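wait is this the right file?? whatever heres the structure
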């Protein structure tokens, strides 16, 4: 079965909903199992993966990122759109706003972050000059412009280990490094996707001002509430972006397309 496109849903995004004929698949990979839902949107066959599990039972540092990406590659996926809930490091970027991320900073600590673990004496250093697929970002931008949705095109995501939120001192340091938003899941997801030759873009939804910028303590509930308010539009944007994406991949994400993860 070939399913060429996938959505990875973050916090609050557990159901594909507007897909039809959905079936659940458990895909076995050499890194473990991944649970996917596969169905149709219009004429396109899509896979949906809930990053935190279908009931938000998997914390960011326990997600099996390698199994998830390997499973998508195994069923034929070439393009992935992912959502992430993020805290904002900028007072001009407020809860409810959307950012098409174009850079990341990796501040994670204890994750399996590569498919190239030196097996068979192979050492691979992957280029990350452009960490997110240009063609996917541009298509998403086009669809958002057509619908007159306000968004920021380009932004730097800093990924922390979690599951705790950051201290205000960390947030001040991260802002000084040039980060715009903070989350706990986009690395290694984005890096593994690139290693696997998948096109990958990340639409970040600002759910709160980051620690120290927010007048209140941070809670998971406020994150989920903002996601709930925006989930329908994100779902529709993703479906439309994948549906309207040109068949031909004009980016460079695929340059190791024949690399199989088993
Ligand atoms: N920090 C880290 N992860 C997050 C945040 C935050 O403020 N908001 C949503 N995910």
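ok assuming it is, sequence goes like this
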């Amino acid at each position: 079965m070939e399913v060429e496109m996938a959505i990875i849903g973050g916090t609050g995004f557990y159901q594909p909903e507007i897909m039809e004929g959905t079936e659940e698949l458990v895909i076995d990979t050499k890194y473990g199992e991944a649970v996917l839902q596969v169905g149709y949107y219009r004429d396109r066959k899509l896979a949906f993966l809930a990053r935190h599990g279908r009931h938000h039972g998997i914390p960011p540092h326990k997600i099996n990122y390698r199994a998830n990406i390997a499973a998508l590659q195994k069923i034929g996926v070439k393009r992935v759109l992912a959502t992430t809930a993020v805290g904002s490091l900028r007072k001009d970027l407020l809860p409810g706003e959307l950012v098409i991320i174009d850079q990341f900073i990796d501040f994670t600590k204890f994750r399996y972050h590569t498919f190239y673990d030196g097996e068979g004496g192979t050492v691979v250093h992957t280029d990350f000059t452009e960490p997110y697929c240009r063609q996917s970002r541009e298509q998403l931008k086009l669809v958002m412009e057509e619908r007159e949705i306000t968004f920021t095109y380009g932004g730097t995501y800093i990924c922390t280990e979690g599951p705790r939120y950051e201290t205000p001192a960390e947030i001040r340091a991260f802002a000084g490094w040039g980060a715009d938003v903070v989350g706990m899941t986009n690395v290694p997801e984005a890096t593994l996707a690139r290693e696997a030759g998948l096109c990958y873009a990340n639409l970040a939804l600002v759910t709160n001002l980051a620690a120290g910028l927010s007048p209140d303590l941070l809670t998971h509930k406020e994150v989920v509430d903002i996601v709930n308010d925006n989930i329908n539009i994100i779902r529709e944007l993703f479906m439309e972006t994948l549906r309207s994406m040109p068949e031909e991949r004009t980016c460079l994400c695929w340059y190791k397309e024949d690399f199989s993860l088993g």
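Residues 220-244 form the longest helix (25 residues). so i think its the right one actually
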